[in-house]
Amino acid sequence: MRDLYDIxxxxxxxxxxxxxxxxxxxAMKFHPDKxxxxxxxxxxxxxxxxxxxILSDDQKRHQYDQxxxxxxxIGDNPGSSGFHGGxxxxxxxxxxxxxxxxxTDPFGGIFSGGRQNRVKKARDLKVNLPLDYQEISTGIDxxxxxxxxxxxxxxxxxxxxxxxxxTSCQQCSGSGQIxxxxxxxxxxxxxxxxxxxxxxxxxxxxxxxxxxxxNGIERKTVEIKVKVPAGVAEGNYMTLNGQGNKGPxxxxxxDLIIFFEENDHPIFTRNGEDVITEAKxxxxxxxxxxxxxxxxxxxxxxxxxxxxxxxxQVLRMRGKGFPKVRGSSRGNQLVRIQVVTPSSLTxxxxxxxxxxxxxxxxxxxxxxxxxxx
Length: 373
Fold this sequence. Notes:
- The protein is α+β, with helices and mostly antiparallel strands.
- Strands 12-13-17-16 form a 4-stranded mixed sheet. A 3-stranded mixed sheet has the order 2-11-9. Strands 1-10 form a two-stranded parallel sheet.
- The protein folds into 3 domains: about 1-120, Helix Hairpins; about 120-155 and about 215-265, HSP40/DNAj peptide-binding domain (Sandwich), CATH 2.60.260; about 270-360, HSP40/DNAj peptide-binding domain (Sandwich).
- The protein has helices at about 5-10, 15-30, 40-55, 60-65, 90-95, 95-100, 135-140, 285-290, 345-360, and strands at about 120, 125-130, 140-150, 165-170, 175-185, 185-195, 205, 215-230, 235-240, 250, 255-260, 270, 275-280, 290-295, 300-305, 315, 335-340.
- The longest helix has 17 residues, at about 40-55.
- A hairpin with a 2-residue loop joins strand 5 (about 175-185) and strand 6 (about 185-195).
- It contains 9 helices and 17 strands.
- Helices cover about 20% and strands about 30% of the residues.
- About 25% of the residues are buried.
């Protein structure tokens, strides 16, 4: 799957203005009205529009930079056209007002691609997804059960009872728009607004569906497959475009926003890409040195404890931490050593300690200044 920056023809450090300028050139080159019947040109035109819809949105661009295509749900959703939600040509043309300075016809009337209406969008859904450290370390495919608005099974989204059909709105004659002409000092102007009677649908329902009350949607439980990238952290989120609530006729589906949470681990604490744990060893092991079998995110591994190690010292196990999102490197595992002093000794142990004390000579405590935070 092609990199979105390559599709637009900019590098990752490009400003929003650079992205807009580059996309405008591509849109001009591959516009369907300029290349009638050219399927390849239409494909390039749509591909660029969908790439721009992500890179021009700061939130979606951040998600893409962090997680790649998975971060914005590209190619992972059933029914997707290879991109985030399968944009229609109407969706693309409806965005031209922002790209070409407010003119909905980007080519000044040369072509017929301009659109007057922006597509309405249904509400987004937000869910939390708890993850174990092991799942974060390797990445995982999850299946979520969520409740969202779906097309009504009874009326198939029409909003009307079986055997009946919506009728054309008399207020707007089925256009969904009310045009109001006015005269001013500067000349004649036309104001276009949504029809208040049919809410822009152009239709009226005289016999509403009993299943959905005429909305054409009903609440259902559905399963969504989510590909969680390795290395995500608490607070990271992923947007699956078009996987949120379905809306009434004429509405674009909302997005599903998944916030990742980390379950507490019994022995590990996370610090960025590193994991931290503490190993308690006996005083004689600290003095002599020992090889420990240490649990890691990937299983057990050997760690050599050098002789004479002091309580509080930290040993590093390189590459045993969490993987970096969209990278090949991994963090480290930090093992803090805690030397345990026996609270009670047997007669034999006490005798050995006394002999060690004699061998060590007349030792005195050392006092140092303590720095307070």
